[in-house]
Amino acid sequence: MIAHHLTRPQNGDTPKQSTVDDPDGVIWALRQAHLATEPLSQRPSEVFIARFRADTSTIPAVRHQLQCWLNSVGLKDVADDVALVSTELMGNAAEHGCRGLPRDTEMAIRISFSAVLVRVEVTDLSDEQPCARSHSGSRTSGRGLRLVDAFSERWGAEGALIGRGKTVWADLRASREAS
């Protein structure tokens, strides 16, 4: 798993990058292109990006790194909720989004935030859209999207702009006090 933590530079400084293997700043350039389409009031000040394999055993390490990052950027009061939603979306991507693909297939999670919302985005290679299963008390799985729905302000999925795949996203309040 490779995690990237990008901080938007202040006053024209160069981007700050930690634990990132991106010598040409490709990720920063892609992020800047995305920022140009967002209203100023909605721009996140920091972003968490991690790639993980289509193997559910890799998810706890990503969740741990994510929780540490959320605490470090001042989102401690919603870190558990964001981590839960992230874990569910990563689990769905590993179990359903990469069905039939090798376990070393990579997926990505991206977390960004503004003063109001935290956005969780998980990208996999499947074109199949997620759907919540009907409730069954005897089933031990299938509740993930119901949890995502319960903890999020809204959630959805978008197909890849180029190639195959999709991104499932969820928006959560950036502060419990705002709810």
Q: Give the CATH superfamily.
A: Histidine kinase-like ATPase, C-terminal domain
CATH architecture: 2-Layer Sandwich
Average predicted local confidence, pLDDT: 76
Main-sheet strand order equals 2-1-3-4-5-7-6
CATH first level: which class? Answer: Alpha Beta
Class by helix and strand content? Answer: alpha+beta
Features:
7 strands, 7-stranded antiparallel beta sheet, Heat Shock Protein 90, 179 residues, globular, 4 helices, alpha+beta
How would you characterize this protein structure?
By secondary structure, the protein is an alpha+beta fold. The chain has one domain: Heat Shock Protein 90. Helices cover 28% and strands 26% of the residues. It is built from four helices and seven strands. It has helices at residues 26-35, 59-72, 79-97, 144-151; strands spanning 2-7, 16-18, 46-53, 106-113, 117-124, 154-159, 166-173. The protein has a seven-stranded antiparallel beta sheet with strand order 2-1-3-4-5-7-6, with helices on one face. The longest helix has 19 residues, at 79-97. It is globular, with a radius of gyration of 16 Å. The N and C termini lie far apart (33 Å). Mean pLDDT is 76; it is low at 4-44.
In short:
The chain contains 4 helices and 7 strands.
Topology:
Elements lengths: L1 E6 L8 E3 L7 H10 L10 E8 L5 H14 L6 H19 L8 E8 L3 E8 L19 H8 L2 E6 L6 E8 L6
